[in-house]
Amino acid sequence: MKDTVTQIPTYEDMLAAHERIKPYIHRTPVLTSSFLNDVTGAELFFKCENFQKAGAFKVRGASNAVFGLSDEMAARGVATHSSGNHALSLSYAAGRRGIPCHVVMPRTAPQAKKDAVRGYGGIITECEPSTTSREAVFAQVQAETGAEFVHPYNDPRVIAGQGTCSKELMEQTDGLDAVIAPIGGGGMVSGCCLTLSTLAPEVAIYAAEPEQADDAYRSFKAGHIIADDAPETIADGLKVPLKENTWHFVSNHVTDILTTSEQEIIDAMKLTWARMKIVMEASCAPPLAAILKNPDIFRGKRVGVIITGGNVDLDKLPWMRG
Amino acid sequence: MKDTVTQIPTYEDMLAAHERIKPYIHRTPVLTSSFLNDVTGAELFFKCENFQKAGAFKVRGASNAVFGLSDEMAARGVATHSSGNHALSLSYAAGRRGIPCHVVMPRTAPQAKKDAVRGYGGIITECEPSTTSREAVFAQVQAETGAEFVHPYNDPRVIAGQGTCSKELMEQTDGLDAVIAPIGGGGMVSGCCLTLSTLAPEVAIYAAEPEQADDAYRSFKAGHIIADDAPETIADGLKVPLKENTWHFVSNHVTDILTTSEQEIIDAMKLTWARMKIVMEASCAPPLAAILKNPDIFRGKRVGVIITGGNVDLDKLPWMRG
Q1: Contacts of residue B92 in chain A, CB cutoff 8 Å?
Q2: Domains along chain A with CATH numbers
């Protein structure tokens, strides 16, 4: 039984999104590290969306949704549920347009993310840290406000916006053999699939996922969506399940999904901070962890690595845990 | 009484240094932050030497010294004493030339810095954490090896190399009203003075220093070098005193030296990590701390801020302290 019809954005939607959002986003830099190239035997190109406006790639999709609204729809505001970065991003984009943004967030989300949402003017309603609770509380908020729902990843406007990231990455590099991005709900990976399947179909697309939240991996192997309620992982942006629109892209265009342990994620995160001198979230670390864990797949290849966000609670770093 | 004759590098020395070291260094990016611009009322341009080879600007001066040696001198290797980043940088440069590098370091230097020196092939001899001990142990090492001494900052080859940083900064920005850099021994500040006094004499040059290691500030006000033995500050790269060659530049070209408390340094460091998503040392934070503390000096100005290095012990972050 399907309760949602898939709405698949096109390559032209992605191109239109890029023109629409350019005034509100950064064209983030691509960094390299000779140390990490030596360690992996690959040539890695890190697309640094941790330097993006609102600290994450999600501002691309959120801005595309917000600035694509008619004035009449925009006046009622936007609303979403999110583990954090989509909430920041939608609040930022709504603020740039001067409209309200209603956000349902788990009460367990990092305090730094809640503070940042409020800093961008977002109005938070808290829910329990499960998909079930989030969806119930959200329905209530939406009914009360009449705001336009912008799903964190299953929205075609959002997927088209996320696709602009790999368009820039291809423009900033001289050809790639593969791209690898973390996968939670699949918004960034779907954006990569949307863009690369037309712009550079020779590029293999890998997704990296925590073992402890491996629903996308199991979905990919089973051939249909498997959704877990409230998995636990340090990569807190990757807990959410695939939905119809992202499943379309993942099932049709992803080469493989690679999983990594919590310790591998923490080690890759700390290694990136130490050697690349950038602040990135645990949710960004599975791709490098997967490359380090599967050297035979990537050795000798030119690999784009999406660093998805940098909104970290600096008082709670994972390697500081007992 | 002076025991050293000043040796002042020229603007042409700096230009020659840039040509000499370009193959071995990064042209580091200049980043901006609309958040920090809003907070300070200034337009800030962060020259990110934390992304530099070996993780610090010091690779500029070290590379200029190493690659300027005759083959005969180079064969005996190089030697230095350093609180850390010059040691890394000289080891890196010596490694690129294939010659030995002897390093005298305080036994209290962060373990991460010792590991990194050894990672670049440097040979460490430990000393006590005082200027007196460092110089005594170093004399012994130098006598035994015959290696060429490359002082961390009082060496004219080193100052000429550091001057290449502000040359790049001016090329990467469309005019500046001021530049501000942290001051310890004065190598980076002297490099800024060397370059800007010829290239852009209209640019005011500020130095920022920890209150707890304010020997440069007191020297500047007194009109002669005042040296403290082993001051204590979280900004561990800024503990060393001015020497003759750096005093020349500081006394002739610096507009003012601004001091900041330990807490102001920690707050500015954490703010930079949180908002700019970059890993930088506590020793890089006094400039932003000084701008936040003295808004009237910088408001409405275009200000270059030198982020000097990113070699941090991630297991010992200052805001984690009791």
Answers
A1: none
A2: 11-56+155-320 (3.40.50.1100), 59-149 (3.40.50.1100)
